[in-house]
Hints:
single chain, Aminopeptidase, Alpha-Beta Plaits, four-stranded mixed β-sheet, four-stranded antiparallel β-sheet, 6 helices, 25% strand, elongated
Amino acid sequence: MPRGRVLFVGNVGEEGPGNLRGVRWLFEREYKNQITYFISVDGTGSNITTRAVGSHRYTVTVSGPGGHSYGDFGMPNPTHALGRAIARIGDLQVPREPRTTFNVGIIRGGTSVNSIAMSAQMDVDMRSESASSLADIDRRIRAAVSAAVDDEQKRWPDSKVKLQIRIDTIGIRPTGGQSDDAPIVKVAMSAGQLVGFAPRTSASSTDANVPISLGVPGITIDGGGRGDGAHSIGEWYDDGPDGFKGPQWALLIVAALVRVGAPAQ
């Protein structure tokens, strides 16, 4: 008999603005303080995510009164200010270790080619395994936006128009990590080897961010098969001859953790 319950959950809201909504519900509401181990299956291949890459995601809006491109020329332009901000962000230097990244993923704004936009927006993503590095790039990106708007204001010193900045949170993902000697990691490694995999551990941003940040042993394993082009229109997946090993791997890990004749720790 298994020691404890095993819950198989198909959750929602992991990606983008979902901000880990489904797994947050499990750990913060429905099964709060009741989960001993957490295993997420996400992606292709045969590796194990043991460290949580945190992220800060914002919508940055620069706004003003807008006007006619010819008749009102000479006022600060939110779109131009946003362009200055993107250029400043693109020039930022970040550490390779701990790996820290940033990206302007979406830009929007304006109503017509002959109008000075009333607002311009960008969606910004920044990530790191390190909470301090993440906080640092967050601060620097905010400073870049502020400096860019100041530059746009100074470009038109005779205008009384003042631009405004608003930063709205899309999502905040926590960071965290655990040793490769942690029992759940050792079980996953042993189970992977039994099905013929050679797992490696890595860091990523997955549903396991939540349990790892809370100190609950959690991992994300690949689901087997082969694939590439994640988050692009060319994304593809193929089971290949060994696709069945992914589900076998997951079940072996579960069996071991509840002590039902599977790999020992």
